[in-house]
Amino acid sequence: MRKIVLFSFAILFFAQCTSIKKHNKHLNDLIAEEKLKSDVDFTYRKLQELHPNLYWYISKEALDYKFDSLKATITKPITKFEFYKKLSPVVAAVRQGHLVLYPPIKLFTKRQTKALIKKGTGPFSQFDFDFFNGKLYVIKNKSYNKNIHPGTEVNAVNGIKPIDLIIEYNHYYSSDGYNSTYKTNYSGKLFSTFFTNENGLKDSIRYNFKYNDSLKTITIKRKAEDTSRKDLKKNKKKLAIKNKTKSKAIRKKKRINGYYFVEKNYNRNLHFLEQDSSIAVMKIRSFKIGDYKTFYKESFSKISDYKTKTLILDLRNNGGGRVSEIADLYSYLAESTFVFLDKSEVVSRSSLFKGAYLHGGSFGFKVLKTFFSPIMYSYLLLTVHKNKNGKNYFATQTKPHKVSKNTFKGKIYVLINGGSFSASSIISSNFKGSKRAYFVGEETGGTYNGTVAGFMPRVKLPNTNIQIRIGLMYMASPFKTILEGRGIFPDKQIIPTIEDRIKENDPEMTWVLDTIKIQEKDISIIQKK
After folding, report:
1. Which of 34-43, 304-313, 378-387 has the lowest mean pLDDT?
2. Among 74, 159, 310, 391, which residue has the least CB neighbours within 10 Å?
């Protein structure tokens, strides 16, 4: 049996390596004109078959024209990457942030990836960048060259101006609707991805820096891991093993809170301010990894025990995640029984069946899914219903929810910015619509009136093998605004400056804490009277 398992793994490993090798070999092949046009038609057909509310932000006539015009520009064979640059702006015109066309880039096997990691940290990963007022800045320097100060402007990378690449790639993806804060927030973080798409991974990069009107050209090479630090980590691990109780507690926290090993931080955190723990700060980086049910149950139990008066919920740069998680979190913060989502619009039963259930997975897994497909389709027959308006709806998180034990009744402040997207925008629209929280920061990257997400299969175009991710469900809270295509606006707008980012100031949090102190002082004066 052991030999059979090992043989199976060997076959899968060989198949993966062969597939990647084949992909890379044909990456720069010229694709015939007719095949490219066929992929354009295939893309539009799949959007119509799978993507609900396709013409939300663009009319059918306008989108038809864009796809027809695209085909007219294809007059000769071009590479897959050139085709990606033609097709992606048309896909982005739908204005749905979850709808993504992935660029065809070089792939690496697991062995190659491990070898690359062993070589050390790449020249981009040695810096944290941010994009302010049309300029790319170094916010944090983790390189071996300590002469590069935070706040240094990046004028060029291997001769390429960051602003040129960022402006170009802004046409290749979209936020939800007409919002602009999403791209502003992510442009600096995505610059290295844009550059790598164009030029591949590099072991060294030539930067043109500007700091205090002084220009410098510095080459940053891949940084090998410091072996002395590695030995120090090993010694720390040995000490941790000796202290089994502490080690077990850390493992438990990582499992419950969720832990990002690259960034070395927890996905969810709760801490208390003031000696009497009257203020609680809950930072949630995403609604993805970790045991969220246990985290929220334990957190709100502590908040109740400590008799906390104010909760600051930090959703800045939270790109979303599980709907089940945000519904669970909201149950601890709602004032009474609530309905969290409207019924989700889908194109049809078959769109969920083909897109979400049958699509993707290995050959063996597909065979297994085919075997169970009659059961799954029967389930969809019972759960997807056509409304009087002729549209199909799938019910998820639509039943009345009771509030959880230890529901927080105090004041809630929610911190938001352009990086607050998808699920974090859905829970924010519930807070805003129910007037349960006070918002501080900037407009969210996701819209108030919902998003098209849920199940999001990657569909491969038949001739170019480029993949497109398509959301299958239009999901929205019961609360709506007349201003279409915009996010949740803050009650108090505060946008950090470049100086704030460099000095690691937090003006949003500072404003909230100062406001709480003023309110407490006013209450104290009134009580004395």
Report:
1. 378-387
2. 159
Q: Do 421 and 438 form a contact (C-beta atoms < 8 A)?
A: no
Alpha-carbon torsion (327, 331, 332, 334), positive or negative:
positive
Locate 119 and state its tokens. 């070589």
- Residue among 139, 120, 122, 153 at smallest CA distance from 189: 139
Do 434 and 367 form a contact (C-beta atoms < 8 A)?
A: no
Instruction: Name the packing angle between helices 323-331 and 292-305 (round to 10°).
Output: 20
Write out the two tokens for 408. 């927080």
Mean pLDDT of the region 4-17: 46
- Residue 47 phi/psi, 5-degree rounding, is -65, -40
Calculate mean pLDDT across residues 58-85: 97
Q: Over the stretch 428-449, which tens digit does the pLDDT of each residue have?
A: 999 999 999 999 999 999 999 9
Structure tokens at 305: 């025990």
Q: Compute the distance between CA of residue 231 and CA of residue 425 in angstroms, rounded to an integer.
A: 44
Straight-line distance from the first to the last Cα atom of the chain, in angstroms, rounded to the nearest whole number: 83
pLDDT at 454 over 80: yes
- Give the list of residues 6+ apart from residue 104 with CB closer than 8 angstroms, or none: 27, 80, 81, 84, 464, 465, 466
pLDDT at 181 over 80: yes
**Helix axis angle, 60-73 relative to 80-92, nearest 10°?**
160
Place of tokens 């019961």: 478
